[in-house]
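step: validate -> pass
step: tokenize input -> pass
step: predict -> running
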Amino acid sequence: MIGSTLRRLLMTVALATGLSGPATAGLTLQGTVSSSDWIAYSDRFVQEDGRVVDDANGGISHSESQGYGLLLAFSAGDRAAFERIWTFTLNELLIRDDGLASWKWDAAAKPHIVDVNNASDGDVLIAYALGLAAEAWGESRYRDAAMSLAVSIGKNLLTDANERVVLRPGAEGFRRSEQDGSLVVNPSYWIFEAFPVLQKLAPDHPWEALASSGAELIGAARFGPANLPADWVAISPAGLAPAPNFPPVYGYNAIRIPLYLLRAGATPGPLLEPFEKAAQTIGPAIIELPSGRALEKLSDPGYRMLDAALACASGTPIPKDLLRFEPTLYYPSTLYLLAMSYVKERQPQCL
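step: predict -> pass
step: emit ->
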């Protein structure tokens, strides 16, 4: 059953682009973030220099926030903001010799880069947004940068594990354990909607195989009574397990997984079923996987919107109190706009 769901998802991701190539898949994203919502978001989190601020994390910026900022600016059709965010990203984060983005930037530190390692979800988001903007706006600078970053991702971050192509969370660390041969991955770093765009930008790398492995991983990484994936998963010859040295939780990382599946075209079925059940029985929460209990309820509208988008895929209207966007903190506000973008594009009947 999961196999047929996987095939439908991969077909959707592969074919949604039409005849002119993968980058056109994102053209419909433009306009799915309203001007008013984007202004409210950017006034709160995007500085004049293009830095996207994670206000719940000490006011730092990171490759994820810059990538999300680029994607949301594109979805709102704000070319000026996109250019500002990209300029900051280019000048401040893209300083590594391998072409990847350093992940953590802190205004209070000197130098501002406090961790030069990359985070692969940030790299994927940046390359994806640049590829979309290049295609939509005919900007060769964006295309050149997107191609360079996509090639760097393919060269440095795609690797084999148990005969599957997987995405390493970073170029440094997360390497195969000498004890059991395991490799640690983060399932929420598989941003499925991006892979057709990266395929067009860097066709020599196995993006389709990466998408397939990600869907298989999410379908197989079902831990504890809730049958949900952990934020961090160890892949070893013995199988899958919550990664050692990380909390065994369905947490702030993994809560994005169903949204990414929905945005890539997944429909209700075995792949989404555990997420739907958790949304219905537990609600938005950080879930301890061994016990299946909620460690922390997530009441922010952005987190509630994730569950609402899942329910919408099965025909349930978005609750009225979630129809109006009011920015709170960076991360849930970002997730809210991404979820609402999905609803506007794919499920407008829920509004």
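step: describe -> The chain has one domain: 2-248.
step: cleanup -> pass
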